[in-house]
Amino acid sequence: MGCGNIFFTLVITLSAALITYNVIISANAPLKSEFPGPSKTNPSIATTDGDGGFISVDPIIKMPLDRSKKRLFHTAVTSSDSVYNTWQARVMYYWFKRFRDQPGSEMGGFTRILHSGRPDRFMDEIPTFVAQPLPDGIDQEALKKIAPTWMNVSLAMKKDPEADKSFGWVLEMYAYAVASALHGVGNILYKDFMIQPPWDTEIGNKFIIHYTYGCDYDLKGKLTYGKIGEWRFDKRSFDAVWPPRNLPMPPPGVPESVVTLVKMVNEATANIPNWGS
Ligand SMILES: *[C@@H]1O[C@H](CO)[C@@H](O)[C@H](O)[C@H]1NC(C)=O
């Protein structure tokens, strides 16, 4: 499928260079027609101008106040041609369309950025831009600028027992956010934008379910995180094989967020033609 002027509006990069993150749009979340501006909300603004003292300007850009002109969100997702990336992109695009077609939706376009360099079998199913992989040795200016700080910040966080414990294996991802802020790379933040099962248990009025953590429970509905549960859903079980249709639902007592996630995957796989092939 072609892709001329696709990057014309606000782009949400749902998944950066490494697609370890996967996101689906929350089933129960009402798609609000407006994000509240800063006057109405109190976004968690993180500033790090304490000890280091080298931030002089708040790098976080506030939500524009003038929202009189409706601007649609463009969703972009980077993907390889692996089974693992592809099934997730198909589920995601299914839910994108479901929400785009609802009244008051602010969903604009959707682009899968396929960085294998070759069209695949899903070009007609998902709007796709085929990107050539970067040749080895190419310098990417922004990354080059940020990378040394990123490493230093990662090491500093790793050495801080409290930070290390709080961030665990996603520490470098947070370090990246800190490093990019230190270099003045701005982001528009919106509080309560997404949830992460199994840690966030309720959907509330969040917009996105971000599923990266495995969900393991015993049959009484108790979380056994880090230990394979009697019931489990972990996207990494399906890195080389397609998840089957109709995944087993979790036992009673498992939180709404996890139940919704599995339901949404099941609804998508039930409705996408030729699933699993
Ligand atoms: C990273 O840390 C090293 C060692 O302390 C230092 O020499 C270097 O200047 C730091 N780089 C950046 C970009 O902060």
From TrEMBL:
A GO CC annotation given for this chain: membrane
Keywords: Glycosyltransferase, Membrane, Transferase, Transmembrane, Transmembrane helix
Regions crossing the membrane: 6-25
UniProt superkingdom: Eukaryota
GO molecular function, one term: glycosyltransferase activity
Positions in coiled-coil regions: none
Pfam families in UniProt: HPAT (PF23452)
Domain (Hydroxyproline O-arabinosyltransferase-like) ranges: 138-275
PANTHER family noted in UniProt: HYDROXYPROLINE O-ARABINOSYLTRANSFERASE 1, PEPTIDYL SERINE ALPHA-GALACTOSYLTRANSFERASE
The protein's name: Hydroxyproline O-arabinosyltransferase-like domain-containing protein
Species of the source: Rhododendron williamsianum
Organism lineage string: Eukaryota, Viridiplantae, Streptophyta, Embryophyta, Tracheophyta
